[in-house]
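Q: How do we represent a protein-ligand complex in a form that can be generated token by token?
A: Start from the inputs.
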Amino acid sequence: MVYKTSLWTGVLWTFLVVTARMAESQGRHSCARSDCISLQRCPQLAELLRAPTRDNIKKLQDATCFVSGQDPRVCCPPEPPKPKVSLLPRRCGEGLAGNRILGGEETPLGAYPWMAVFGYKEIGFDNIEYLCAGSVINDRYILTAAHCVEPQVLAVKRLEVIGLGDWDLKTTVDCQVTESGHRLCSPPSQNFTYEEIIVHPQYNTRTTYSDDIALIRLSRKVDLSGFWVHPVCLPPQNLNVRQVMHVPEAIVAGWGATENGTVSDRLLHVVLPVVDNQQCNTTYKGRTIAEQICIGGVAGQDSCKGDSGGPLVIRGPDGPPYLQIGIVSYGPTNCGLKSVPGVYTDISKYRDWIEENLRP
Ligand SMILES: *[C@@H]1O[C@H](CO)[C@@H](O)[C@H](O)[C@H]1NC(C)=O
Ligand SMILES: *[C@@H]1O[C@H](CO)[C@@H](O)[C@H](O)[C@H]1NC(C)=O
Ligand SMILES: *[C@@H]1O[C@H](CO)[C@@H](O)[C@H](O)[C@H]1NC(C)=O
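Then emit the structure tokens for the protein with 2-acetamido-2-deoxy-beta-D-glucopyranose bound:
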């Protein structure tokens, strides 16, 4: 902060006269929560000299810890935190296929361009196994489940590649014949390694798979210029997801990846009903917490198509943008158990945590 010298010296004089008397009577005193530093080095307090009102002088007097010559020292309070600029994008949740949800389970190419697939290599083996998924949330970060990337898992299986914009895991250039008979192809996937993994500190401490959420910082920036790789939208903190759903259902997409590998080479999706939290808690014998939501578990609906760590999304009333409301956490190991819903991390409870942990 730069002051005009005349302003500084003029106001400083007034200030000195007032503080000198005070310092004489009280001597030096120590600061409770900060250092005793030169007023000129404390912009928050020096700012008050611009408007030397009675109130401001009083504040300065209270803050003064030592006066020597022309250099009063003050207990400089910590600077108020700057309003944080969100690193999450404004444009998000736009899938290529628009309203077109096909009858089948195979997804339209480009419908869920935030899908990330994780390829692992077991120590001592050469082949890549796709065991988890995640979602692109900006040009550097992937959101996933903590159980996919926690240190104990990565000690046994190295996270070798994070693939974005993939659809058919077996082919390099993926093609699909659209409803109108055109052959549509997407470019090869963008492959990444990671630079940092941030697992939620409370993961698995409060209940089974509690706080099952993690962030992956990729080794370089994602190219988001095309429509084949695009971030999903995240809900505001504490959004009541049920209230914004126009139908009580959500979509899970994935390759059906579990700890045993994938079910399908091509990206599948399924629409699942949201289950009452109380009912779900009863099914799981009181082990679910408010930061988890339950989906699926209704006869005829297979809840085993999503991948661990993958996103649970809802659409707006007119289609995209898509909002990610959950992360696939755990569920019935036997996919035949139709009455058992899957448990998902409720993202609306973690928006603040996510934003606090993103770096440019
Ligand atoms: C991405 O990684 C997968 C798995 O290692 C590999 O099969 C594929 O060829 C890679 N794609 C590109 C474009 O490098
Ligand atoms: C994985 O395979 C093991 C052994 O066959 C089985 O016990 C387990 O239930 C399988 N897990 C899933 C999620 O399918
Ligand atoms: C589930 O039930 C247990 C035991 O009654 C309770 O402590 C917990 O808060 C409940 N969870 C939810 C999400 O209601």
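The chain has eight helices and 18 strands. The pocket of 2-acetamido-2-deoxy-beta-D-glucopyranose (ligand 1) is lined by residues 119, 128, 161, 163, 172, 188-189, 191 (CB under 6 Å).
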